[in-house]
Amino acid sequence: MFENLTQRMSRVVKTMRGQARLTESNTQDMLREVRLALLEADVALPVVRDFVARVKEKALGVEVADSLNPGQALVGVVHQELTNLMGADLGDNASELSLAAQPPAVILMAGLQGAGKTTTTGKLAKWLSEGGHIQHGRKTGKKKVLVVSADVYRPAAIEQLKTVAAQVGVEFLPSDPSQKPADIARHALDHAKRHHFDVLIVDTAGRLGIDEEMMREIRALYDLLNPIETLFVVDAMQGQDAVNVAKAFADALPLTGVVLTKLDGDARGGAALSVRHVTGKPLKFVGVSEKLDGLEPFHPERMAQRVLG
Ligand code: GDP
Predict the structure, then answer these.
(1) Pocket mutation for ligand 1, best pick of 159, 203, 218, 290 (most atoms within 8 Å of C-beta)
(2) Where is this protein localized, as stated in its record (predicted)?
(3) What's the mean per-residue pLDDT of the chain?
(4) 58 is in an annotated binding site
(5) What is the Å distance from ligand 1's center to 114 Cα?
(6) What angle do CA 225, 254, 280 make, to 5 degrees?
(7) Which of 25, 69, 102, 300 gives 20 to 30 Å between its CA and that of 279?
């Protein structure tokens, strides 16, 4: 993933490290290279502008403060700003799920059709049921997870979730296309309470585009379920489109975070770098494989490191 971006950025980093002095001209050259690398990676233009402006401002401070190794210090500035761009400014725990609700903690999954919602529901269920979840630096233990599909438009979607649930060994609550999504949700919540599930993950219908009816429906599910996490699942390979769709959802629904899927196929990386800035929501997980263990909690710092090569 991000091959080109990493290649270009590591070249800039190398050049910077080689500078004994930072001059107006070599700083400008470096900023131009960073700008081009980000644009080529399909990072949204306002994000690029903002980013370059912030690095530039801090670069001025570097010249004075760190005259011994200014190139190295400048690399540090780029690294820090990249980390912030991807959500570090939201605090250390922004990428963690908050499951500290009275059980069941409800997780509502939203997204367009094909984004990877059902797969991610399975991945998340696996991760939580195996005790992968970390909060405030500590594993929170294995969770008893129930999954249900409120996608009554595609019977195949319900079947798909059933298959995925069986693969990861979590309980699946059957639903039926003749039911109303709200009734499915109500029933699932009741079932989860009565059978003492820690977590209920509700997969929802995805449409081909954003439409009012879809928004109304998911909003109604949100009001009914009162989820502790509302995650928007989006396909990284859609680049800037992905970010725009995420923004439309963030404006319509109180999202708590974004899951970026198919990062393994995303050669550019623009969505991963823009989504936090454009939506104001933290990126919580990334999907890195079709397989059900292909989910990683998102760490801005590590991702910045990866980008810089
Ligand atoms: P939904 O319509 O949003 O529920 O999407 P699905 O969960 O059915 O996923 C659509 C396709 O994307 C399937 O073929 C998945 O295997 C694939 N997919 C989902 N997440 C990932 C990922 O992180 N990496 C890769 N390579 N494929 C993924």
Answers:
(1) 290
(2) Cytoplasm
(3) 90
(4) no
(5) 6
(6) 150
(7) 102
Please tell me the distance between residue 228's alpha carbon and the centre of ligand 1 in angstroms: 24
Whether 269 has a binding-site annotation, put simply, is no
Instruction: Using the Cα atoms of residue 130, residue 189, residue 121 and residue 256 in order, give the sign of their dihedral.
Output: negative
Q: What is the pTM for the complete model shown?
A: 0.92
Give me the interface pTM, i.e. the ipTM: 0.99
Name the residue with higher pLDDT: 94 or 269.
269
- Determine contact, residues 95/300, Cβ cutoff 8 Å: yes
Q: What are phi and psi of 201, to 5 degrees?
A: -105, 125
Q: Among 207, 190, 197, which residue's Cα sits nearest to residue 151?
A: 207
**What is the total residue count of the chain?**
309
Q: What is the rounded distance in angstroms from the CA atom of residue 20 to the CA atom of residue 153? A: 63
